[in-house]
Amino acid sequence: MEYLHTMIRVSDLDASLDFYCNKLGLVEVSRKDSEKGRFTLIFLAAPQDVGKVKESTSPLVELTYNWDPEDYDGGRNFGHLAYRVDDIYETCDRLKSGGVTINRPPRDGHMAFVRSPDNISIELLQKGDSLPAKEPWASMENTGSW
Predict the structure, then answer these.
(1) CA–CA distance, 116 with 40 (Å, rounded to integer)
(2) Residue tagged active-site, from 55, 62, 123, 141
(3) 3-class SS of residue 56
(4) 66-72 — which CB contacts under 8 Å span 24+ positions?
(5) How far is the C-alpha of 65 from the C-alpha of 126, rounded, in Å?
(6) Average of pLDDT values for 99-122?
(7) Catalytic: 123?
(8) How far is it, in rounded angstroms, from Cα 110 to Cα 91?
(9) Does residue 86 or residue 80 have the better pLDDT?
(10) How far apart are the C-alpha atoms of 86 and 126, rounded to whole Å?
(11) 92's torsion region: left (phi>0), alpha (psi -120 to 50) or beta?
């Protein structure tokens, strides 16, 4: 068995690409528009996975944008996507500077949660050992749900 991708329906393609690519740092590796089906599929990979994707077309996040408006409820019911990061504090600083709410700050130097524009929960995990506790993160409260 091999993990291929996770599909997420998005309601605003521009806002979603801004979040996943410009803020979170994923890379668009392919795109397909279907006139007949009235949808766009965009496949994204973590930068360190781009080489794997070229060989095996995985692991990926598939953004599905339906051209006809729909309401998507229950983003929390989806669960979450998880990404390992080199520096949890730098990643959260960059996201916060980009206007992303840090729902669960990395108080422990190991784990944080943010949400996409479609309310999908994204878990960020520190690569290797947890970093030492550091302000402002150590005393920062949760915001909303994660």
Answers:
(1) 18
(2) 123
(3) helix
(4) 66/9, 66/38, 66/39, 67/38, 67/39, 67/40, 68/38, 69/11, 70/9, 70/11, 71/11, 72/9, 72/11, 72/118
(5) 30
(6) 94
(7) yes
(8) 12
(9) 86
(10) 6
(11) alpha
